[in-house]
Amino acid sequence: MTVEELARLGQQVLWAAFLISFAFGALVQRTGFCTMGAVSDVVAMGDSTRLRQWGLAAATAMLGFAAFSAAGWLVTPQTLYASNRWLWLSALAGGALFGFGMVLASGCVSKSLVRAGAGNLKSLVVVIVTGIAAFATLKGITAVLRVSTVDRVGLEFAGNADLGGLLARTSGLSPSAAALLAGGLIGAGLLLWALSSPEARRPINLAAGFGVGLLVLAMWWTTGRLGHLAEHPQTLEEVWLATNSTRAEGLSFVAPTGYVLDWLMFFSDASKRLTVGIVSVAGVLCGSAAMALARRDFRWEGFGGTSDLGHHLTGAVLMGVGGVTALGCSIGQGVTGLSTLSLTSIVAVAAMIGGAVAAVKYQVWRVERS
């Protein structure tokens, strides 16, 4: 492969990532898919419809990733979530912070991007502050705190810390067979639960769940298959093009918001290049804006007062710090990470739900007190 062909392939990966995230933004804007809303609906109203949307998305991604693994296209050790250390405390603490923060901020990072694209200036502020907090937790002051505290705690495994890998090492099954079995069983169970409610089987809810899950799989295919080179022509190393981690990456939005700010502020630095994460943020904004304009839903919105501003700023900081500490957001861990059956992802998602439940109850307490 020549240098020109390598550059063209990198551009194809970036364009594909942009189009996938554009579709994600448009879909979420149209269907109202929202993890924070799902938890809030259950706690406040006992309505599990949106939680089943999320379950359907996670099941779709899980079943698809299991099929990818069985076909040899992409396996968990090749992804961003690959590690032989189970960082359970980072996932627990970060997930809880993120879950609490997304309720205070009126939505997770992906939902904030969608709302910002539709004219919500509160969400735009949330995205910017989340990006600052995320980058600080990647490389700044809170990164030092993260590395010196929760990241020190973990369990070492002989192989990758995921359910498929554990099954393979304990049962004697091949890694691909174990991944297919584990992903198939858990994904099928989640799928059955998600579709067990008549309300969840309405077209709009099916479109939300299946749509998000399929778009997560499309991003996995883009970075893990299209952008994969078994041997880079210059370095002779295995590489996944246009990713920040140099491994296969899926849809995720906390760290990428930080990378967007870094790319914008240091644009003239030749070492700062576009990546899948950066173009994904732009794609969601553009897709949401296009859908909102097409449906005449675009409208400017601002903060209602200082209390509203304070809660959104606090939520944004918690999401930025928590999302990086937990290695992902409610999409990055809640759908993308879960599809790999990563043990860290499982703990992070449980902690996010717990944090969100606590935040909803806190808000109810504030309303009752006032």
Automatic annotation (TrEMBL):
Main location: membrane
Top-level taxon in the UniProt lineage: Bacteria
Subcellular location: Cell inner membrane
Any Pfam family the entry gives: Sulf_transp
Name listed for the protein in its UniProt record: YeeE/YedE family protein
Organism: Ramlibacter henchirensis
PANTHER family linked to this entry: INNER MEMBRANE PROTEIN YEDE, SULPHUR TRANSPORT DOMAIN-CONTAINING PROTEIN
Keywords: Cell inner membrane, Cell membrane, Membrane, Transmembrane, Transmembrane helix, Transport
Transmembrane segments: 12-33, 54-74, 86-109, 121-145, 177-196, 203-221, 274-294, 315-335, 341-360
Topology in the lipid bilayer: Multi-pass membrane protein
Protein family: Belongs to the TsuA/YedE (TC 9.B.102) family.
GO (cellular component) term, any one: plasma membrane
